[in-house]
Design the sequence.
């Protein structure tokens, strides 16, 4: 499928620049690529026998650090560390126009669903890549790279994950009328358990199968602009409870052990402390995902995300139980009500 570049402001210029980069002046055509939750527009630019990716990303912050700036800064940083991210071949962050190396069109989600018998082997490689990311990315990473706060601290967890879940999913999607004070004690305790007050580590924050590509037997990592300082366990949790790919619990446990065995010398704390942090961020991530799906479906009109809500809800009970029965009584009652509501709707 091709598209008319005149329909997308700024794309004509990108096509010309892509041709120059590829050394091709003729036979250049474009095709739109359909993203997930982002408002950014991606295009595959075919330059003779090769292809590049064009990205148009409207700037949200005119006079301060913007997502585009973080995309450029973090992308260049990760590439300089030898990590598997697409090279940024051209960037005009001010206008929100980029040309990227083409990482293909097969997400890890699609790759695994076509080869379910190879899931353990494939995810073993993904966990290895994650370990490399956590080992290499911190060196030289600076708070100034981050447009959306630089630390996953308790206040960020509270507002951007737990309250996001309450507002978007509980009240916005399920139409409950749950006030912030009803959950505040439990949310504050969970935010403290999940967040950090300082960290030498950085993490991706959306490390899941739709942000990992497979091309020519190689893994590529996308959407890294939200990277910040915080607990590496969050990325592992995001990968394992990813609603797009239902990883069996047995394999989840095996992958946690695999990650810990390869990364424990970098963590600086015991396996018990690691597991405690992992369980806390896993629950916080579970709630954030439900908030995101509700927001994308209701506010953005992207109804396809509703398909993944039931599985994300199913995970609430085991993830909550890992934190200890009775530790979050208000949240436990809410989850019971959510399960009843979802069953009635099914």
Sequence:
């Amino acid at each position: 499928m091709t598209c008319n570049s005149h329909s997308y402001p700024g794309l004509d210029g990108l096509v010309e620049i892509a041709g120059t980069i590829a050394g091709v002046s003729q036979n250049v055509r474009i095709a739109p690529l359909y993203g997930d939750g982002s408002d950014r527009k991606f295009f595959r630019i075919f330059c003779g026998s090769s292809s590049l990716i064009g990205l148009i990303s409207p700037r949200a912050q005119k006079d301060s650090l913007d997502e585009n700036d973080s995309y450029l800064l973090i992308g260049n940083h990760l590439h300089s560390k030898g990590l598997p991210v697409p090279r940024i071949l051209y960037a005009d962050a001010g206008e929100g126009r980029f040309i990227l190396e083409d990482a293909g069109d097969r997400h890890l989600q699609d790759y695994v669903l076509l080869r379910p018998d190879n899931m353990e082997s494939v995810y073993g490689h993904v966990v290895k890549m994650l370990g490399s990311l956590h080992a290499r990315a911190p060196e030289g990473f600076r708070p100034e790279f981050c447009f959306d706060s630089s630390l996953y601290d308790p206040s960020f967890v509270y507002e951007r994950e737990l309250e996001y879940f309450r507002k978007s999913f509980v009240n916005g999607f399920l139409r409950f009328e749950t006030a912030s004070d009803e959950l505040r004690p439990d949310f504050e305790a969970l935010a403290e358990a999940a967040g950090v007050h300082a960290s030498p580590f950085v993490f991706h924050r959306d490390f899941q199968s739709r942000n990992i590509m497979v091309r020519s037997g190689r893994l590529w990592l996308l959407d890294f602009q939200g990277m910040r300082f915080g607990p590496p366990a969050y990325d592992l949790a995001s990968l394992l409870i990813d609603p797009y790919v239902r990883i069996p619990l047995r394999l989840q446990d095996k992958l946690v052990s695999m990650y810990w065995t390869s990364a424990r010398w970098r963590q600086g704390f015991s396996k018990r402390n690691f597991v405690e942090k992992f369980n806390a961020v896993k629950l916080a991530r579970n709630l954030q995902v439900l908030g995101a799906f509700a927001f994308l479906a209701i506010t953005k009109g992207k109804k396809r995300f509703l398909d993944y809500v039931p599985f994300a809800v199913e995970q609430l009970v085991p993830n909550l139980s890992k934190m200890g029965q009775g530790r979050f009584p208000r949240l436990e009652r809410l989850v019971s009500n959510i399960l009843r509501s979802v069953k009635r709707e099914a």
Observations:
- The mean pLDDT is 92.
